Amino acid sequence: MFSRISQVARHLARPLPNYAHISAGAANRRQSPVSSSMSLMATTHGKQLIHTAACLIIGDEVLGGKTVDTNSAYLAKFCFSLGINLRRIEVIADDEDEIIEAARRMSKNYDFVVTSGGIGPTHDDITYQSIAKAFGLPLKLHDAAYERMKRLSKPHKSQPDFDWNVPSAALTAKKRMVELPLDDSRPYEDQVIFTQEELWVPVSCVNGNIHILPGVPSLFQRMLDGLKVHLVPRLSDPEGKGVHRILFSTPLPESAVAEYLTHLAAKVKEQGISVGSYPRWGKSRNTVTLVGRDADYMETLVLEVEEAVQGRRVSAEDEMDSETEPDADKPS
């Protein structure tokens, strides 16, 4: 009984369907009215600029420990290189209600959302249908994607009699992978993006900012890289300078540098620079970082930081590991 009540409560707590839903960009425009000229500055060809991102990893196999998620780490590096602020990573089950809730919430709160997993041919691949339900959209066979599938994919050797023109269970299963959530009020070319000439798998873009990618790491990485050309014009930094990170290797424990780093963080906050400290368990040296967009200003801080932490600027955390130093702090 308690389980049933919980299910009903969760259903009633879900956000409203698509007609009442707005993306993060639309929400910002409604909450903060601006002049026409300011609105134009905030968009590119009618599309909202991308400042923030979120990642939704979908898959029972990840939660069950069968598969290790590497896609979110790849996305994090991708976003960092473009200057996009990745704000959230979530891993959820192949559960329709959970996918619907997460998709609506992330679409509302972030400019660029990437999902990974759940778009295969089997019964538990429910990402397309769940996200379609989240925004009140139908699933439609996308003809161009289907034609690319027929041209670029080959039937498995275990299916020697497979025929694209003869109805079969295998054909039905394959078609599930090109039955996409499509909104007739938006241009289809903005909703179905082919990022690689040699791949038939498209990136399905829903509600203007949710990008549905496969969970297979090699495909995920290639398709995400292919999206870059579509994203760069919508960045606040369209030249692609992105965010800069400076690493320092220090032999001091975190407790010895904590006071200085606190003062430094307050000093550089207005310049948009963040200061980080990262203990390296079992290693003799810790890492301090400066992260920000103002590379010139960050360079002026290098000598000061090196002196204060009795360390040295490095290109990789393990660059000075061969030098023996006292043990760093251990967590209590």
Automatic annotation (TrEMBL):
<feature type="domain" description="MoaB/Mog">
    <location>
        <begin position="54"/>
        <end position="235"/>
    </location>
</feature>
<dbReference type="Pfam" id="PF00994">
    <property type="entry name" value="MoCF_biosynth"/>
</dbReference>
<protein>
    <submittedName>
        <fullName>Molybdopterin binding protein</fullName>
    </submittedName>
</protein>
<dbReference type="GO" id="GO:0047884">
    <property type="term" value="F:FAD diphosphatase activity"/>
</dbReference>
<feature type="compositionally biased region" description="Acidic residues">
    <location>
        <begin position="317"/>
        <end position="326"/>
    </location>
</feature>
<dbReference type="InterPro" id="IPR036425">
    <property type="entry name" value="MoaB/Mog-like_dom_sf"/>
</dbReference>
<dbReference type="InterPro" id="IPR001453">
    <property type="entry name" value="MoaB/Mog_dom"/>
</dbReference>
<dbReference type="GO" id="GO:0042726">
    <property type="term" value="P:flavin-containing compound metabolic process"/>
</dbReference>
<feature type="region of interest" description="Disordered">
    <location>
        <begin position="311"/>
        <end position="332"/>
    </location>
</feature>
<dbReference type="Pfam" id="PF24102">
    <property type="entry name" value="FLAD1_M"/>
</dbReference>
<dbReference type="InterPro" id="IPR056596">
    <property type="entry name" value="FLAD1_M"/>
</dbReference>
